[in-house]
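# step 3/5: fold
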Amino acid sequence: MLPRVATYDALRAALRHEEPELLNMAVQTCFDWARKDPDRVAIIDLGGDTRQGVTYGQLQELVWQVQAALRERGVRQGDRIGVLLGQSPLCAAAHIAAWAMGAISVPLFKLFRHDALESRLADSGAKIVVTDVDGADMLDGFDLRLVQAADLKTPVPQPVLQTEPEDPAVLIYTSGTTGKPKGALHAHRVLIGHLPGVEMSHDFLGQDGDVLWTPADWAWIGGLFDVLMPGLALGVPVVAGRMARFDVAQCIEIIREATVQNVFFPPTALRMLKAEQARITGLRSVASGGEPLGAEMLAWGQEALGVTINEFYGQTECNMVASSCAALFSPKPGCLGKAVPGFEVAVIDGDGKETTGEGDIALRRGAPSMMLEYWQNPSETERKFRGDWMLTGDRGCIDDGYIRFVGREDDVITSAGYRIGPAEIEDCLLTHPGVATVGVVGKPDPLRTEIVKAYVVTKPGVKVSATDLQSWVKERLASYSYPREIAILEALPMTVTGKVIRKDLKALAIAEAEQDPSQEQEST
């Protein structure tokens, strides 16, 4: 656990990243605690009719049951094991069992459909999936061996394979925001790499009374390694309370029923809470990551949630590399926090040299949570790096240690000589009382190179004109950055994790420009 210090500089000075000679995440997340304190609550399961506390001893027995079922089906070290489950004790046990055997777990999302499942299973080469009855129906017709709860027998102690920090452990597919999903292969050290940032984002997670939950699915790195596995490793009870879809009332009820004190809310969930004027009491910390929040959302969080929302930053390939921590320093709107101790975050130019101006946000090679490679994709792995730096694909700058986000490299808009980040404009439009969701891209323009175009979904029953929204931005941001075109749509293209897919909007804007390249329009 992080040392309890008073300043960020003191934390950086005190923390040294060290990896043991042998390391297995099954020991970190379950077996150590089961040996030291078997009656300690590991998971608070709200999936049944009543709240159930699952202890580390019980979790270990469930892991042994899954291990036995996997061995019966011929699983060996290095095999890929699909995990198609929602938030549940079995989901946690399936990953831990795979790691204990030296296998590689592959998280799969319950909202995937046939093609998404087929592509990930085929690419990973997984032949066995741990799932439930609903998941088995989804996998009907696939050439797979399944493990379900009905297949589990009386637990028999099973050994944990001795593995090293660099041994492969988990294969997590990117959400496909900027192209075809790629499999990021992570080693057993990935959890060690996550812990400092997770603790920072929750103002020193692991205090008495802490209980951790997220509405994000455990099939994504945000749910699996920002919440579930760090909570288990730190001895903080993790709530299994997945909702079929995000519902504000149900969210508040989960927090109340499980006495949750620490929440990771994706930005989309925060916006929905804000839109319904929700108020939540009793929280000690709220973390958010995935896309930057603006001043309006941070101010709302202080008022409605009673805490300072700590933003953190990372991606599937290398996560939890920067974070805010209200216990150590004040947040800056538009910034992603400061580099987590153990990570070197820089802004580099096209030659791979650090720059004091705007450039590519990059991470020093060898960071503790950095992937080993893209699974069986050496060309994409090589493209991800520039010299000693892993490219995040984001543009930004560093101001007094704060990492300021400008936009995705492919998203930055060049208009009349100005470089415009879409995030600030999106944040401004989201403060309008009639806007529910928005995506901003550059549309090709013969005069300005590009113009700012906004695609907006309005709130039900609210009529908003493009002119109203343009005026809203003009009054709040730089005069050159307002959207010269606004389209009001019924829905925007979104990833399964709730991020707007700007590349799809960009393709739409390009198609519009090709159809009518000479005319700017304000469309509804």
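# step 4/5: annotate
The chain has 15 helices and 26 strands.
# step 5/5: archive (pending)
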